[in-house]
Fold these 2 entries.
Entry 1:
Amino acid sequence: MPSGVNLRSTLYRKRTVSPDRPRRFLTEEVFLNPLPGLVLFSSLLFTSNASAPQCAGVKAHADAWVASKVDALVAAAHAVYTDDEAEPAYDRVVGQLADTFKRCGLSNDEAFKSRYPEFVGYVEALALNLKPDHELGFVVPDRQYFEETRDFVQIPEFLTNQSFLRLVSRFQTLEQAKAYLRRLNASRSADEKLIFFSYNSRHLGTPDSKDSFGRLLVVVPGDASKGVPEKWVQFGVPDPGARARVRNVSVVSSLANDDGTSNVYFKDFYRTFRPDGSITIKGRWELGEGDDNCAQCHKSGVLPIFPVAGSVRADERWAVEAVNARFRTYGSPNFGKYLDESKFGPGLGSASWDARERLFGASFTGTTVARSMVCSSCHAPGGLGSFNWPMDSTILSSYVEGGQMPFGSKLSGPQRTELYERLVEEYFSTDAARPGILKSWLLGRMREQSPSS
């Protein structure tokens, strides 16, 4: 994630739904034809007649079919990781796979599932994001998620005070907004005091204003013993001199469990500026303005803050260290019943040394860059969550090329560029003889090579 980008309010890219998805084609054809009943019958008959031999072929030559579809899926994922404009094509690949699974009954075929469990689970998980009521990418519909998690992501009432909202909505009055927070802290106990500071994000704007990089982060301490989560509430702040309003407010909450994990919850809100000067706040989704896939950026739930150099006042730098220290206490992220992280497989930097040597050559494995390909030492199941697809390229490139990760590493600029390029290639490679992490996992080769198999 880019330095200084820690909440999903920073992700302004919206998913583009492909106009070519099969289920829409039939609807549009029937709508335009003067004999819709006849077209519907003939279309269904054609589909039924065509599907039987196609499905028989898939099952009879399953290895070859899966291998070709894995290549297509990984290539499409790599393309959209590199360029957002490739997203419609990627959606078509996922949609067609999900459609074949359904028509051919592959998800319920025990023989097929037992042979390709990774591929089946992955396609089913990716396909959720294509449904119009699953923009968050979760197993349950967006409405259900927001209803069930309302208490965990609600903005604290003292941060919706009209006076504070007016102050935090303009750069010129931002210091007065902080003065309000300091007055609140004066009456709070030591373990209840708010931690707050303003800063500039390095690369990403807010969902409603992609060119706005100002932020005010307020961390509201929780109490796990009472089921009260810790909340990271972030307000988008207009840049100095900007006349346009920034509406976004984001909440990421973390509630510690006894097993060392933390349940993580997300929600984006938008401010509405009324003609009478009042400001209301309502969920972005409830306002009908869409939402984004949460886990795409938040593999580890709450993420640390790496602001633009010089954007944090000297007397607030301690607060940056304080919130990052709190992040390190949260443990492994847990998305509960809403997301099964195991369906997405291993992430960046998780290749074996043998696989890395086959891909890049024996001479590479002894280099400083190779020794720095250690993302999975922290970002893995049971740790901070794997960096696996879907993931955001701006976030990852900023972390690696911007100098924050790997933590504590000393690399030159060219070395960091090479490190990032090697990590991406190692993950997305579709070379038949030297497959990357994602392809190898989807084909079950990592399972076959594991000591427990």
Entry 2:
Amino acid sequence: MHGGGERWAMALGIGMPFDSRVGSQEPLVISTSADINGSVTTDTIVQNNCSLHVRGNLIGNLTIDPGAEVVVDGSVDGKIVNRGGRLVVNHKGLAAFVTLNGPSENEAGATLRINLTAIASNWVRLAKSTVAECAAVVRCNAYGCGIAPIVKTLVQSGCHTFFVTDLSEARRVRAAAPHSTIYVLHGFYFGTGPAFAEINAQPVINSSAELAAWDVFVSSAGWRGGFGLNVDTGQNKLGLSVEEAIALASRLKSPDHNVTLLMSYWAPSEKPNNPASERQIARFRDLRRLYTGVTASLVNSTGALLNPQCHFDLVRAGSALFGVNPTPRSANPMLPVVELRARIIQVRNGTAEGGITDDEGWSAKRRRLAFVSIGQADGFPPSWPAKNKLHAIVGSHRCPIAGRPSLDMLPIDVTDLPVIQAARIGEMVTLIGSAISIDEVAEATKSTGGEILSGLGSRFHRVYYAT
């Protein structure tokens, strides 16, 4: 969609989700009933007997004609001229977090929409599945979705504990969550002590060497911040050995031992009663007995849903918060969170004999191709088996992606579109959304949903919204 306010009203009139353009000087004219999932950043005119529901904030001036009805879930910050209509402002808490980020929508090649309400709902879903505390893992910049708005949303929902990759992420969490507990998964090393003390974050100690360095710091600085102990109970990941953890248990005899968390990584087996999995659970249960009074945490989102016996005191919700299915081969209990749409930059008509070929041997005869402005530089998967076709939604039609992406461009086969005008320069196509899940993309690319999300680039126009 492009153009001024009348084009916008026409788009809204056919019931399509729409976000206002950043920096546009023309007002948004509503000439029929419309919903906007996001904030409106321009002046808005709601014409006679029309209705508008803004699921975010209305930042520009608002004019309401006679008989019109306007509902705003967030706040109205501009001048209001009511000529005989009705205005309802709900001031919902999440609407305060509706923000826009990155380049403007008109200037960006792709738009990433992130549903904060869905993230909140997913956390609540996981929190209700356990009597343990439900923490949020927001490592890798909240799986590429952006720490600040995600953490603010989760705090609003009742989350009190966060796990991050490193200190730089811990700083961003602290800015968004002044009173929360923060654990840094990549641990402690010399020179970082003052930063941990400054932001009151806790390292997850992964080795005896790290613990020795930590003890030197707290002894010299006189700071008594806590730390977590990570033990490798069988996943061959980071962590102390079980034997080291057993030896360190005597530390708890000291009143100022400062061990606040005992954790390990456990991935539920696809086979019930798997011996290796059962042994790992038993090891952790035995360790917990030695660490009486210390919060114990073993499972992620999958374990939280599949095995209540492993919840202990705290479960760590990760990629499931962002809509990734935590129960493979079963229906996804999580709500979709992200929608990725990219702009068509060229449409080419060829002959039946024409085709495209890439350097790995892909060759396909296409009569009509649409090239969209997204590629490897944006984190779109660079390769996948030719037999595992990816698709995009053009208009409302599934179209196959016709080849692997280049650095910044992706070809889509639009030959069979029932409405040819759906593929034209400037239109947006959906690559991830309600009709094409993040898990579908991950399966086709032999990846994971978390990897797909974390790779999505910073060149997108980003919309954080509440519904």
